[in-house]
Design a protein that fits this description.
Length: 406
């Protein structure tokens, strides 16, 4: 898809979202009310509109930062860090973030299990920068993870991770924006010694990629006269205990947990009856054996929305690796899709299947049948809230760009 097609689709989506809000939200309220009620609603909407325009923007709270910021970095090593937000007591429901990596190669970002479940702009990698716009309709307060970022140091020398934009939006009904504080992470990348053991895996061959294998296989070339101490941990900073472990050269480890694991290994020699161990080497494993959460499919149509065509809506989350993509089955074929999805077959709608696939390849499928109910008012209210939240952010961005032209 070219840039022109992308712009057209974005404009069409915004137009359809606005139409849905009008169709199911404000206009239905007006039609249900008496003249006095309509006037009261109109006054309230005017007040809310002006509050959105004049709400203060100079306040500052919350902090956005990259963790960890105090580890040894070697060129070529894979590092998995977390982009975190600490709201410092305030309740937020959205954020816009840009983070720049100097002397690091960005291998990927995963938002599975993060605090944001909806993205008006999905996390994207552009050169040495990651940008995203995420939202949580129910709101969030506390310290949490936005996403896990996989990076590799490119060259020996200074390396840094800097957040260049961090705007959070309060969950106050107005979407009041706050400029969050940021904390830079500075590193010194060192060249890895060629004498250190090299770690490999048969069933997790690509470091930094999610897999759904239940066990982890690790191998290295064991040297004669050397002992090895190792540990599989959730802590990137953990160090083996310098007590020799068995077997050596190849191990198979099993854990019932899912998530990101670090295999730390040190090579040891016996000197004067004591073990002397060298620097540790680490390999990262991304394990996810769980399915995405079950979800429902909702069918709807409305005048002025997608030209009155029937469309479906669906949503779910994956708490470990995150959702990779969606597919819709109709007319005997699977189509890559996203919600909302306009049906290709508008006439004889008998059965519709929607499949969600996470980043480890785990899949879950839901089925809509013709006797299934349509949208309930609860669902409609949720959809309106989500679209309205995204709309507030986009209105503010347009306003800010007009007030601060380049």
């Amino acid at each position: 898809m070219n840039n022109q097609d992308t712009r057209y689709n974005n404009q069409a989506n915004l137009k359809s979202q606005t139409s849905i809000i009008k169709q199911f939200g404000y206009w239905n309220l007006v039609r249900l009310g008496e003249p006095r009620t309509r006037r009261a609603i109109g006054v309230c909407l005017v007040i809310v509109f002006w509050l959105l325009l004049i709400a203060p923007k100079s306040a500052q709270a919350a902090e956005v930062y990259f963790w960890p910021a105090d580890i040894d970095v070697h060129t070529g090593d894979t590092i998995v860090g977390e982009l975190r937000i600490n709201t410092e007591g305030v309740d937020i429901n959205a954020a816009e973030i840009e983070i720049v990596f100097d002397n690091f190669e960005i291998a990927g970002i995963s938002t599975g299990g993060g605090i944001f479940t909806i993205f008006s702009k999905a996390p994207s990698i552009e050169g040495n920068m990651i940008s995203l716009e995420g939202a949580s309709p129910e709101g969030f307060s506390g310290e949490g993870v936005v996403g896990r970022i996989t990076i590799r140091a490119k060259n020996q020398g200074e390396a840094s991770i800097k957040t260049t934009k961090a705007t959070v939006y309060l969950n106050d009904g107005l979407g009041t924006p706050l400029n969050a504080r940021t904390r830079d992470a500075m590193f010194t990348a060192q060249t890895k010694s060629q004498d250190l053991p090299q770690l490999f895996s048969k069933n997790y061959p690509e470091e930094g990629k999610w897999y759904n294998n239940p066990f982890i296989s690790i191998s290295w070339e064991a040297k004669e006269g050397r002992e090895y101490s190792y540990v599989l941990s959730r802590d990137i900073n953990e160090v083996p205990d310098n007590v020799p472990d068995e077997p050596v050269g190849e191990v198979r480890l099993t854990t019932e947990e899912d998530g990101i694991f670090y295999f730390h290994l040190t090579e040891c020699i016996v000197s004067d009856g004591e073990y002397e161990c060298g620097p540790k080497v680490t390999r990262t494993f991304f394990k996810d054996t769980k399915l995405p959460k079950p979800f429902e499919i909702f069918l709807a149509s409305a005048e002025g929305v997608y030209e009155g065509k029937k469309f479906i809506s669906f949503s779910t989350t994956d708490e470990v690796s995150g959702i990779s993509h969606w597919e819709v089955f109709e007319n005997g074929k699977w189509y890559v899709a996203q919600s909302p999805y306009v049906l290709k077959n508008q006439d004889d709608i008998g059965e519709i299947k929607v499949r969600a696939t996470d980043n480890a390849g785990n899949q879950i499928t839901s089925v809509w049948k013709s006797e299934a109910p349509g949208w309930s008012w609860n669902v409609i209210i949720i959809v309106i809230s989500v679209f309205a939240l995204i709309g507030v952010i986009k209105i503010r961005k347009v306003r800010d760009s007009n007030q601060n032209p380049a």
